[in-house]
Amino acid sequence: MANPIIEFKNISKKYDDTPVLKKIDFEIESGKFYTLLGPSGSGKTTILRMIAGFEDPTSGEILFEGKRIDLTPANKRPINTIFQDYALFPHLNVSQNIAFGLELKKMSKTDIQAKVAESLRMVQLSGYENREIDALSGGQKQRIAIARAIANEPKVLLLDEPLSALDHKLRKEMQVELRALQQRLGITFIFVTHDQEEALALSDQIFVMNDGRILQSGTPVDIYDEPINHFVADFIGESNIVPGTMTADYLVHFDHKDFECVDAGMRPNEPVEIVIRPEDLDITSADKGKMQVTVDSQLFRGVDYQITGHDADDHEWTINSIHQTTVGAQVGLVFDPEDIHIMRFGEDEETFDARLDSYEE
Ligand SMILES: Nc1ncnc2c1ncn2[C@@H]1O[C@H](COP(=O)(O)OP(=O)(O)OP(=O)(O)O)[C@@H](O)[C@H]1O
């Protein structure tokens, strides 16, 4: 990356003696939408708090535009944070909330007024200047929190699960708005969520985290199509994951047969896990399929059927198909060789880390 805006170099964090971040290395490119995605406790918020300056690393360096910032206090960093609960001041109205930080910066009254109006326009709430905070809906509060943050013209905006308090429909609407706003403003967004669908929909780049480590970073398509290990494949989207063994570069053995696949750079006889997404599978008659399963359930979802079944080894399979079947039926499964994704099997933490390091070199 030519000129990263933020760099984490070998960052570790311990609380007492418990490691919560382990050897975190990444670069953030200016003007893009980044998402830290992972289950609860994986370390997402700790990374965000370090970027903001609310938390110090135990070891390692944080750079901002090429210079160390881990010793710069939070209020001196060109970074703003939007918290889950918005942290709006309830006793101030909308424009006073937005003006608060600008007054601290000693901006003139006319400049503040113009900035408040511009920020409200950005979040499509022009005319709400004198509204009390209590008289706003959840989605409007969310937008005011964003307006307050962008009024400060930060270079980076940190968003810690900002949509989690909203109902499903509003959450979807705000996702579209956030993405559009980020593109309009061109500010770097770093967004924290444990919702994989949200991460796929919003991001230019996703960092998938578990247990204090970044397991994989990439575009939503990279991560969905080429998950690096079982955890990522399982966490992102729905997957069928079954054990297999490589027979040759282009052949993988599972369900007691060899299947053609793309070369994943594995050695012959190497134990692997294969991933096939439900939408890449279809059902056909038992004699025509590449493999056979017995149907355990079928759910009509409007656009398709979600079918589950099991093979002779009792591995479960999920298939999204426009074709209908019946519970208890034997059906064949069809799929393309390029839709079989192959992952290394049973790597311990150390081997996995060594592999990650080798990609970075
Ligand atoms: N101040 C603290 N003192 C001790 N342990 C902490 C502290 N803050 C966080 N932790 C621990 O660090 C780990 C990572 O926490 P963090 O909040 O970064 O995770 P997260 O991925 O953001 O989770 P969530 O989605 O639940 O917010 C957790 O095990 C948490 O209990």
TrEMBL record:
The keyword GTP-binding does not apply. PANTHER family: SPERMIDINE/PUTRESCINE IMPORT ATP-BINDING PROTEIN POTA, SPERMIDINE_PUTRESCINE IMPORT ATP-BINDING PROTEIN POTA. InterPro entries: AAA+_ATPase, ABC_SmlMolc_Importer, ABC_transporter-like_ATP-bd, ABC_transporter-like_CS, Mo/tungstate-bd_C_term_dom, P-loop_NTPase, PotA_ATP-bd, Transp-assoc_OB_typ2. Keywords: ATP-binding, Cell membrane, Membrane, Nucleotide-binding, Translocase, Transport. It comes from the Bacteria. GO terms for cellular component: ATP-binding cassette (ABC) transporter complex. Residues 6-236 form the ABC transporter domain. Pfam families: ABC_tran, TOBE_2. Transmembrane segments: none annotated. This is ABC transporter ATP-binding protein. SMART domains: AAA (SM00382). GO terms for molecular function: ABC-type putrescine transporter activity; ATP binding; ATP hydrolysis activity. PROSITE patterns: ABC_TRANSPORTER_1 (PS00211), ABC_TRANSPORTER_2 (PS50893).
